[in-house]
Amino acid sequence: MLGEIVRNSPDAFADIGQVLTSFHDEKMLRRGVMRAIWRICEKRPDLLCITCELMEEKLYLNDEDAVVRAYALMIAGAMA
Questions:
Q1: Nearest to residue 35, comparing CAs of 72, 79, 77?
Q2: pLDDT per residue over 36-73, tens digit each?
Q3: Which residues of 45-73 are buried (b: 16+ CB within 10 A; e: fewer)?
Q4: CA angle 41, 43, 48 (to 5 degrees)
Q5: What's the pTM?
Q6: Taking the CA of residue 39 as centre, how many other CA atoms within 13 Å lie in the half-sphere pointing to its CB?
Q7: Mind giving me the DSSP string for the chain?
Q8: Whole-angstrom Cα distance, residue 46 to residue 65?
């Protein structure tokens, strides 16, 4: 939900994006955080300090969860 809020009102809620991305290491929250990162990156990638290298470094492209792997690919595509 936070990703959608930032995506639709990026200027008003720009700071939330960085807070949200700080939770990407939490396995329980990872799917939702990755989805939020992707949704924000589609519209305003400049709001996040997430890079394609981070997706590889954290092994999200090799994650055991196929959904996380898919989001990692979509984030990389949105950042390109």
A1: 72
A2: 999 998 888 888 876 555 666 667 888 899 999 999 88
A3: bebbebeeebbeebebbebeeeebbbbbe
A4: 35
A5: 0.84
A6: 18
A7: -HHHHHHHSTTTSHHHHHHHHTTTT-TTTHHHHHHHHHHHHHH-GGG----HHHHHHTTGGG-SSHHHHHHHHHHHHHH-
A8: 27
